Amino acid sequence: MALSNQDILFASLVGSEVVKLVPRFTALENELAKHVLPTVPFLPIRNQLGIDTGRPSEIIGDIWQADRPQAESEQFFPLSLSIDEGKTYFLLPYEPMITISSKNNVVKRNVAKQDPNRDQSFQGTIKERWSRDDYQIQITGYLMGSMLTGNVEDCFPLKDFVRLKNVLTTAKKIMIKCPPLEQLGINFIVIEDFSFPFTKGENVQAYNIKALSDFSYQLLIEEKDV
Fold first, then answer.
1. Does the pLDDT value for residue 102 go beyond 70?
2. What's the CATH fold of domain 66-111+125-213?
3. How far apart are CA 203 and CA 96, in angstroms?
4. Average of per-residue pLDDT values in the chain
5. Cβ of 72: how many Cβ atoms within 10 Å?
């Protein structure tokens, strides 16, 4: 019995015993083909295909454009910084991620000759809440140029980079506006650490800022006449 390549492949997949049934399958397939109507296309209607070339200015002008900066009204928690006592503010153009943490400075004192077997109420240490620590604020975000690729002058967000650098390196007090910080009473911060890590993309520059809250204290109290 002569076997075609298709029969050999089918037999290798199903089993050697099926080789004996191959002639029967072929005869059955030929017999059914005599009584089956020709196939009818499932969808006789074909959609019209076309390519919208558009105007050259629209294609070439938009393909290298980056996302535009977000306005303050478009950001959920916009963050603005000022180094001139609130006269002008630098709004971070793309909403950053903000992490706020703090702690209580607690003094612990051990009880001398403590015997937990005699008195269960004197276990552990005596805690004295001494003071509140600073709020630690971490701001992580990115700056983006208007063009995706090209020269440094066209791609890199140099203007925003310089403005942010001036804020981070200033010796003046820094005012900050951000809804979650305002709820904590934080209006001024001190920059402790910052970095501009490597960022993938010619027009993108990430930044990471670590700051501390700064509250005004009246250290000198004027003595009133009694």
1. yes
2. Pnp Oxidase; Chain A (2.30.110)
3. 17
4. 78
5. 13
Contacts of 159 (CB under 8 A, 6+ apart): none
In 3D, which of 210, 194, 178, 191 has the Cα closest to residue 101? 210
Q: How far apart are CA 79 and CA 160, in angstroms?
A: 14
Helices (H) and strands (E) in the chain, counts: 6, 9
In the numeric block, the tokens 């203007």 are attached to: 159
Most confident of 67-76, 77-86, 217-226: 77-86
Residue 21 has pLDDT above 70, yes or no: no
Residue 151 has pLDDT above 90, yes or no: no
What is the average per-residue pLDDT within 93-109? 92
C-alpha angle 152-193-101 in degrees, rounded to nearest 5: 120
pLDDT of residue 37: 55
Q: What CA–CA distance (Å, rounded) separates 69 from 78?
A: 12
CA distance 97 to 67: 18
Domain limits, the chain: 5-35, 66-111+125-213
Give the whole-number percent of the chain exceeding pLDDT 70: 65
Long-range (24+ apart) CB contacts under 8 A made by 60-65 are: 64/147, 64/148, 64/149, 64/150, 65/146, 65/147, 65/148
Cβ-contact 168, 210 below 8 angstroms: no
